[in-house]
Structure formats: C-alpha cells, structure tokens
Amino acid sequence: MEIGILLKRKRIEQKLNTVQLSKSSGVSQSTISDIEAGNRSPTVNTLEKLCMALNISLQEIFPYSQESFLSEDESELLTIYRKLSGQEKEHFLKLFKLILEKR
Question: What's the per-residue H, E or C state across the chain?
Fold first, then answer.
C-alpha cells in the first residue's frame, strides 16, 4: 500500500483534518494533501514529522523496514529518542554510555 494512503488512514483514524496535522507536524497542508493523493513522495524528514505528529512509528508505515526486526523494548527506546531535542539526545547517549561502562 502506498505511503500516502497509509498516512491518510492514520490521520482519519485519529479524527484529524489536514490543517490540524499540518499544525502539529510543521508540514504544510498542501504537502500533506499531495502526499496523501500520491502526487508527491515525502522526504524522510517529512515522513518522520508526520509520524511523530500522528504518534506512530515508521515501522507502521514500512512494516518490513529494518526497524521491524527490533524488539518491542528497542523500538520503544528508538521512538522515545526520536522525540528528544538535540541536547536531550546528547544526555540520553551519555547516560547509556555510562550504564555500559558500569557493567
């Protein structure tokens, strides 16, 4: 199934219109409409923004991607990490490195 159709289905399931999704994702409404209609392919950055705004993982869009081989815990950590700011990501990585050093 096409990416646009899957994104539209998820958006409708959450009772959002394209304007609302645009505001929460930072992706223009016209871009969202074009993607959903199959007139445009999203960049990875755009797709990540839309997935975050819809609170879904890339794995739900690409079920056979590399992420589909992650355990549930690994996938959850990756989802959390992606939602962090740049500085928070740095702290997150430092914490995990400290944990590994202490083993």
Answer: CCHHHHHHHHHHHCCCCHHHHHHHHCCCHHHHHHHHHCCCCCCHHHHHHHHHHCCCCHHHHCCCCHHHHCCHHHHHHHHHHHCCCHHHHHHHHHHHHHHHHCC
**CA separation, residue 48 to residues 63, 67, 97, 100 (Å):** 15, 14, 26, 29
For residue range 16-47, list pLDDT tens digits in order: 999 999 999 999 999 999 999 999 999 999 99
pTM summary value: 0.61
Name residues whose C-beta falls within 8 Å of residue 15's C-beta, 6 or more positions apart in sequence: none
